[in-house]
Design a protein that fits this description.
It is built from 10 helices and 4 strands, in the order βαβαββαααααααα. The protein is an alpha+beta fold. It folds into 2 domains: about 80 residues, 3-Layer(aba) Sandwich (Glutaredoxin), CATH 3.40.30.10; about 120 residues, Glutathione S-transferase Yfyf (Class Pi), Chain A, domain 2, CATH 1.20.1050.10. It starts with a strand and ends in a 12-residue tail after the last helix. The structure holds glutathione (GSH). Glutathione binds next to α1 and α3.
Length: about 220
Amino acid sequence: MTRILYSGTKNASSWAFRAWLALREAGIEFEERVVDIRKPQRFENLNRIVEFSPPAAVPVLVDGETVIFDSLAIMEYANELAGNKFLPREPRLRARARSFLAWQHAGLSGLCPRLSFESAFYPDKRAMTFDEQAQSARAYDAFEKQLSHSGGPYLFGDLSLADMALVPTALRLASHTPGDRLSQWPQVAAWNDRLMARESVREWLSEANGLPVVRLPDYMP
Ligand SMILES: N[C@@H](CCC(=O)N[C@@H](CS)C(=O)NCC(=O)O)C(=O)O
């Protein structure tokens, strides 16, 4: 096998999750090497990555001689290998799907750094702050509108890179959103369930759920 994905600790690396998902959903064979990104071993482990990947971060896909060192680049590559089936064919829709991808890649208006991926696995969740609730409502409104526009079952009809990029976010938001609140966005709630039921997502999460939680010091107020 010539493709190696340097992935990350499964309950701590949302970026690796996205790249891994795109490769899996595209049916691409790869060898997975999980880099333990938990502290304190994180820095030593990532220092090994810098020998072949400038950002010293995961994910990295090494495909023969080629090193692809960003989750979005890996997702786009997976899509190309799969005959571009994970982006809409129509240029305006494709641009719109890429807008969701870019929004997520840029941290979803600051929401992701505040509500870390790790926190989705905490048994004791804190309530979202007023600001986090407002930001998450903004994201949910946008997803609901997009699902109405496409008619579902995914944001752009068929499963796309936009859905895959948003899986870790769907997880962290839903896990912090009481069911009665989430019911304000019925199509988002169904989309969440659909995403979480995918075999690829279940495979990653079954491993992630079996790991000791990764506590981040700034989670609790
Ligand atoms: N933009 C990069 C971000 C990758 C990233 O930040 N990965 C984290 C793990 S989830 C990491 O390895 N961070 C190393 C560090 O920040 O020192 C991508 O999309 O691949």
